[in-house]
Sequence to fold (279 residues):
Amino acid sequence: MATPPTENKTPLVLVPVAFVGERVLSLLDHVGSILLLLVEAGRWLARGVFGRRVRIGRQAIVSQIVRVGVRSIGIVSVVSGAVGFILAFQLAPPLEEFGRKDLVANIIAVAVLRELGPLIGAIVLTGFAGASIAAEIGTMVVSEEVEALEAHALNPVRFLVVPRVLAALVSMTALAVISDVVAVAAALLVGVTVLDIPYATFVQNMLDQAKLVDFLTGVGKATLFGMLIGVIACGNGLRVTGGAAGVGRATTGTVVQCVVAIIIADLVFTAIFYALKLV
Fold:
């Protein structure tokens, strides 16, 4: 008589370790798949730019820029303007105690150009476009449209991922500039009309404080944020399983992962810029 197989049960003491290890391995697997997707998209983009036999559809890129970027301008402007108002109102009372209310312009110029402009645009774009990209590609996976592309020898990364990543990258760069302008303009409006700071003083303080490197570092971070949003959204969409419920999970996961990735990337680059004496 054959002996029944023995069950391989994890000791109770090691259950938390196994749980944490499983989560860490799952996280590393997901991050690795995103990085591989980014490398693959970069390879196809390089072949499209430098090669003659591979073409990246310009019309697809333009349509994605319109859908991802142009349609986000309104909500980014509203949020950025509100943040500019809030900063001006919040900074004025403590600075007035020292008799330097005019320094509101100095602080807002640096805070918006370095951090808040790109960060606001990235978070808004994550909710507005990142989730949409993940849901769109996830629906194509569920409806087997991606398999149909592969059956016709059409690479999904080339035709689906590259246009969306490029659109997110270009749109995020432009949205960061728009966010900077709107936030500073809103703060200027409050400073001149409510806080009684002379227009010339406000503008001069901003110009004295803000440097070109502040603007460039902010725009550079925005470009990275756009790339992260695009590749994470596309990666989650391509990994969808489980029908409509899987599409919902991918959409929610995309928003959470993009926000976390943006904050961590912002932290890393701010530390690098600080070490290089750029901030």
